[in-house]
Amino acid sequence: MATQHPDHAAKPFWHASSFISTAHEAYEAYVCFSELGIDEYKWDWEGKLVDESVLERLVADHWQYFKKHPLGKDKFLTFRLPNPKVQNEFRLGRALMGILSAASLAKQVGLFSPPLFEVILPMTESEKEMLSIQEAFREISSLKHPLYNLGGNGTLKHIEIIPLFEQVNTIINSDKILTRYIELHKIIFGFEPVYIRPYMARSDPALNSGLVPTMMAIKIGLSKYKKLEKQTGIKMYPVVGVGTLPFRGSINPTHIGKFIKEYAGISTTIIQSAFRYDFPKAQVIKAVKKLNKELPKGKAQNINAEDEKQIVKAIKSFENPYRKSIEKLALLINKIAANVSKRRERVLHIGLFGYSRGEGKVKLPRAITFTSSLYSYGIPPEIIGTGRGLKKAMADGSIKIIEKYYINIKHDLTKAGRFVNKQGLMEIAKKNPAFAEIMEDIEGVEQYLGFELGPRTLDEQQHALITTNIQQSLTKNKKVTHLIDQAALLRRSNG
């Protein structure tokens, strides 16, 4: 599933600039389908401005392609809705109306109908949120007037919900939400869902809880979906929302085999902008083909009750120091974030991006900008909290359970560790006590891996020099956008 996540650094191969406006995203969807071999494209009503006539634009501009590869049958366009508990309901209403009108349009012009039949519900925390969207859609589809009959063609009366779980604890307990959803779905609509696509976020739980807690939560989620499928007989097709850098999921065309092994059990992976545009096109196409071929073969690891108990306990050893440090770094992160280049047209987001702790509240930028900010300062966020967590895990023996389920932990930390500007951070730590914890994390990761963190290649060494320049420029309140852009190109991802 290709998405509009703005994590790319380079100019897309099909476009004139690195910034992609709303007006160009329908064409982008076509390119993802026709040139990259991607099956699905997420149309994001939640976090950004959208072209509401996307279906008309696709069909009008690329009629022959979609006549041969119909939407809803061979290729898929999936709306991510705004969650009404945190955003104005008018965007939700417009999205649902768009799905209904798409069904009528497709039928009218002789294409497969309905072309859109699933929606992603972000920030899902209960079965009631899922069911309320389906009930709202049923009500809208039944509206009638002499001038219109929205559901009159009988093409679409019910939509499938793809619940997006965005917090560590929610992911771990998401099977309970799905169990209640199945039960209530049968009571309300008279039938059980034929299938469910539980969608686990990867970036936002990492932003809120750190690298290792997020990975362990996803492994528990995958194991539980496998058990739930066996218990209910309802097929589960898990989705994971990954980005290119290890902190956001480590899906990278250069080591796609490791990703497939790590996330065995998923049916759909997200392919964000950096994956598509910061690597050679031929390499991207080859990686997409491999994903399409290999993902269906993967089987999730089984996690028994005792292992789950150990994992949940170990998560706190990583999550607590991570949050402690992020609170101290929040002002710096936001200062850097103001310099990060925009890649898409976004709307103000209200919700998960930040977390409450004690009496205070930390406000953080969105996950991509957050990740870009820390990498640009020479502190890959993968390291934060992880070094202290690893020290404790090695001392109490829980490292075995972590390594059992987080298969590529050493690979991911090694990759991220090459972007640590250790020398620059040591100088900052002499003046800023908050960085003493970061140095402790670096030490802990080095102890675990058995070697020093820092650049190895010429590109990585150049990246370190740029981050030193950024560190020094920020102390003088200079703009550093051009430097952040240069560093992003070197690591092949904005954030």
Describe this entry's structure for a reader.
The protein is of the alpha/beta class. Helix content is about 55%, strand content about 10%. The protein is built from 21 helices and 13 strands. The strands form four sheets. It has a seven-stranded parallel β-sheet. Strands 4-5 form a two-stranded antiparallel ribbon. A two-stranded parallel ribbon has the order 7-9. Helix 18 (about 420-430) runs antiparallel to helix 19 (about 435-450). The longest helix is centred in the middle third of the chain and has 33 residues, at about 305-335. The radius of gyration is 23 Å and the shape is globular. It starts with about 25 loop residues before the first helix and ends with a helix.
Task: Name some characteristics of this structure.
495 residues; alpha/beta; TIM Barrel; seven-stranded parallel β-sheet; two-stranded antiparallel ribbon; 21 helices; 9% strand
Task: Please give a quick description of this structure.
By secondary structure, the chain is an alpha/beta fold. It is 53% helix and 9% strand. The chain folds into two domains: 22-297, TIM Barrel; 306-491, no CATH class.
